[in-house]
Amino acid sequence: MRQVNVHEAKTELSRLLEQVEAGERVVIARAGHPVAVLVPYKAAVRRRKLDKVPGVATLVNGKKPGELIARLDFDPYERSLRYVSTHILSHELSETAVRDALRQGHAFVAHDWLCDSTGFAFVAAVGVKTMAIMGDEVKLGNALTLIAATPVNCTMKLIRNGEVIQTTNTNRLSFDIKATGVYRIEAWLDVDAEQRPWIYSNPIYVR
C-alpha cells in the first residue's frame, strides 16, 4: 500500500489511478495523517454504499451506470502548466537544439514556485568525467557513480526501476552503481509541515 500527500494526489492523479486499476491501494494523507484511500472500483459494493449516504441517492436517482453525476476540478493542464516548469538541457537556444534535447530526454520537470531549481543536476560519472546526463544510456562498468545535486537541501530520493533505493536529506547525493536499471531522482521539500514534490528528473539508463 502506497501513501501520498494531498498535493501529489492532485498533480499525479492519472498515474495514481493507473496504479489503482492495477490493484494497488493508495492512501492519501494530509500532514502525514491518512484521510482517504483510493481502491479499485467495484460497482456492486459502491452502489450499496452510495444508496445509504443521505443526499447521494438524490444525485444518482435516474442515472445509469457510467453516467456523469458530478464534476471535480483537479488542476487541468491549462492551470498546471502555469506552475510546472520543464527545464531543457540544451547547448544553445535554437529550435533545432531544443527539439534535439527533448528528443534525447535531456530535461527535468520542477515546481519552481516552491523553490528555484536552477543548478539541479543528475549525471553518471567516472571520477570527474561525466559519462551520461538525464535521458542518456550508459554501460555499467567499474567506478560508475550517479551524482545528483540541488541548489538547496531537500529530501532526495534515488529510484531504480520504479522502486526507491535511497532517501536522504541533502543537496548532493552520490551512489556507486552495482546493477543495471533505470535510475531517476525525485527531490521533495518540506512546505507547511508537509512533504511536497519539487523536482522530477528524467532517467539515466544503465545497461
Give a description of the structure.
The strands form 2 sheets. Strands 4, 5, 6, 7, 8, 9, 10, 11, 12 and 13 form a 10-stranded mixed sheet that branches. A 3-stranded mixed sheet has the order 1-2-3. The radius of gyration is 21 Å and the shape is elongated. The chain has 6 helices and 13 strands. Mean pLDDT is 86; it is low at 43-48. The chain is of the alpha+beta class and 207 residues long. The protein folds into 2 domains: 2-78, YefM-like domain (YefM-like fold, 3-Layer(aba) Sandwich), CATH 3.40.1620.10; 85-206, Immunoglobulin-like, CATH 2.60.40. The longest helix has 9 residues, at 13-21. 14% of the residues are buried. It is 20% helix and 43% strand. It has helices at residues 6-11, 13-21, 43-51, 56-60, 77-80, 95-103, and strands spanning 2-5, 26-30, 33-38, 85-88, 107-110, 121-126, 129-133, 137-138, 144-160, 163-176, 181-191, 194-201, 204-206.
What share of residues are in beta strands? 35-45%
Oligomeric state, counting identical vs distinct chains: single chain
Order of helices and strands: EHHEEHHHEHEEEEEEEEE
How many domain modules? 2
Properties at a glance:
2 domains, 207 residues, Immunoglobulin-like, YefM-like fold, ten-stranded mixed beta sheet, alpha+beta
List the helices and strands and how they pair.
Layout: E1 2-5, H1 6-11, H2 13-21, E2 26-30, E3 33-38, H3 43-51, H4 56-60, H5 77-80, E4 85-88, H6 95-103, E5 107-110, E6 121-126, E7 129-133, E8 137-138, E9 144-160, E10 163-176, E11 181-191, E12 194-201, E13 204-206
Parallel strand pairs: 1-2, 8-13
Antiparallel strand pairs: 2-3, 4-5, 5-12, 6-7, 6-9, 9-10, 9-11, 11-12, 11-13
